[in-house]
Amino acid sequence: MDETITYVGLDVHKETISVALADGGKRGDVRAFGQIVNTPTALARMLAKLSQSGRTLKFCYEAGPCGYGIQRQLSAAGHHCVVVAPSLIPRKPGDRIKTDRRDADNLARLHRAGELSAVWIPDPAHEAMRDLVRARLAAVRSLRQARQQLSGFLLRHGCHYGRPAWTQMHRRWLAGLRFTQPAHHIVLEDHIATIEAATDRRDRLTKQIEIMLSDWSLAPVVQALQSLRGMALVTAATMIAELGDISRFTNPRQLMAYLGLVPSEHSSGATRRQGGITKAGNGTARRMLIEAAWSYRFPARVSREQLLRQEQLPKTIRDTAWKAQERLCGRYRKLTKAGKPATTVTTAIARELSGFVWAIACQVSPR
């Protein structure tokens, strides 16, 4: 008996899942199965109804806030399931009707046609590490916002420090401020307390990243990336937590495109027009690379901190890191002398730096 393939599209929401079925073959029918409750029990009942002898089920649904629980449950049951990138789903320009049923039908039809782009699925341990890294990023944003609010408060009342802020001397200066209105002292102390709490939260989460790193399967890759200039522990851990297994990219150009560091293009015929970077893919990883790229505006050298990070690494990785410094520092000076803006130069350096990140990551095997 021939085996048949049924493609199942799932439009997943917090409370419900709309299900559509597409029979194998280009002209197979697409029909609605119905709507089920978004619970593991309801999903298991649906699998029991759809599973038949000689039928292969292939599921798909869009990546979203509901996570990867459905994919893991379906994979554990022995079925093929992909999570697709919502931004890469083909859509008809004239289609003005959107419902859950139509979305599920469209997913099933496109999955059968092979038009969907799957995302990389992290394992539970990697997802936990990524949540920890993102919690620290949220703490950094909260600290920056609290500092901006205090600076704005002081500016409104004509208080200017005139030196580098957020040091111990700056804290003592804040304690010596005097206002005519008692309420302003209460506001000042509240801002200071908020900043101190945010600072403690950031430092606490940074310490937890260092502790959890030893049990992470991708810890060797994080340690290897720290050989690069501008790639300390937090930057390297954030990069790998957001990107996952970099070796899945067959060449560095794919990684550059995934990070959105390649120029956009609108060409037709003999006319070729290129614009700014596409900014596709993971914005957090791209921001980490651009921040690291700023360090290459200085002459190439191995600092004491970088030397300590490289001591336990193989010579091949250290040589790659030095090759990156020689090329990127020289490239930065060359582009600057050509009159390019600093932001454009840094973005170009970040694009080339991602190639060295790929080269080092491919030399290290995860645990």
Describe the model:
The chain is α/β, with parallel strands linked by helices. The protein folds into 3 domains: 110 residues, YqgF/RNase H-like domain (Nucleotidyltransferase, domain 5); 91 residues; 143 residues, no CATH class. It is built from 13 helices and 7 strands. Helix 8 packs antiparallel against helix 10 and helix 12 runs antiparallel to helix 13. It is globular, with a radius of gyration of 26 Å. The model has no long low-confidence stretch (mean pLDDT 94).
The SSE string, one letter per element, is: EEEHEHEHHHHHHHEEHHHH
Residue share in helix: 40-55%
Count of all domains? 3
Structural class: alpha/beta
Largest sheet: 5 strands, mixed
State which percent range the strand residues make up.
Answer: 5-15%
Radius of gyration: 26 Å
- Cα end-to-end separation: 43 Å
- How many helices? The count is 13
- Identify low-pLDDT runs: none
Pfam families: DEDD_Tnp_IS110, Transposase_20
Protein name: Transposase IS116/IS110/IS902 family
Keywords: Coiled coil, Plasmid
GO molecular function, one term: transposase activity
